[in-house]
């Protein structure tokens, strides 16, 4: 039976701030294999929920080691698909306008060709909620409380994290 649990935003943000300029030795650094941004965001999300989804390489969201992980743990578009469609264990969310972003949420950037290319973790938000007032942590050009407005992108795809589930 699936049980809903709260997403611990404070714990997720605390993790992001701690590891923004460093690498947690428990996780492989994918910087030289296409980038570490989504791996870092997944680590932050996991710090806020403590539950992975082992339903498979394509459909799950998990990390065992650098060679045994789901596509969504490290792939920008795969993470988006998982967060928006997950009905099983692990963290889940919904598309949201930028004005609904909160610390602990995820923003993914699109380039002018429409390709999602970068995952960011929201660490701090000031009012009004506009790109200049959203601060993020990221890997692959490491950042800690960097303004979203300083990135060059065509579109920002926002995912508001709703919670997580575990199997009882």
In short:
The chain is of the alpha+beta class and 168 residues long.
If you had to describe this structure to a student in words, what would you say it looks like?
It is a single chain. The protein has 168 residues and is of the alpha+beta class. The protein has one domain (2-167). It has helices spanning 9-19, 37-49, 71-74, 76-85; strands at 2-5, 63-65, 68-69, 90-96, 106-110, 116-125, 134-138, 143-147, 155-167. Helix 1 runs antiparallel to helix 2. The model has no long low-confidence stretch (mean pLDDT 97).
The helix content, as a percent range, equals 10-25%
The helix count comes to 4
Our measurement of the CA-to-CA distance between the termini, rounded to an integer number of angstroms, reads 5 Å
Radius of gyration: 15 Å
Structural class assignment = alpha+beta
H/E series, N to C?
EHHEEHHEEEEEE
Poorly predicted residue ranges? none
What's the overall average pLDDT, rounded? 97
Largest sheet: 7 strands, antiparallel
Instruction: Based on Cα principal axes, name the global outline.
Output: globular
In total, the number of domains comes to 1
Percent of residues in β-strands: 25-35%
Number of strands: 9
């Amino acid at each position: 039976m699936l049980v809903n649990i709260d997403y611990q935003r404070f714990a997720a943000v605390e993790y992001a701030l701690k590891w923004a300029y460093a690498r947690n030795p428990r996780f492989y650094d994918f910087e030289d294999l296409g980038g570490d941004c989504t791996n870092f965001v997944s680590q932050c999300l996991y710090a806020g929920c403590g539950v992975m989804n082992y339903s498979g390489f394509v459909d799950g969201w998990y990390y065992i080691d650098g060679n045994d992980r789901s596509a969504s743990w490290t792939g920008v578009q795969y993470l988006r698909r998982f967060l928006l469609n997950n009905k099983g264990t692990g963290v889940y969310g919904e598309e949201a306008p930028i004005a609904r972003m909160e610390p602990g949420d995820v923003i993914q950037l699109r380039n002018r060709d429409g390709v999602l290319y970068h995952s960011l973790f929201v660490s701090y938000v000031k009012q009004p909620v506009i790109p200049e007032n959203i601060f993020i942590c990221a890997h692959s050009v490491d950042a800690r409380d960097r303004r979203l407005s300083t990135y060059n992108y065509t579109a920002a795809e926002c995912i508001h994290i709703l919670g997580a589930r575990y199997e009882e």
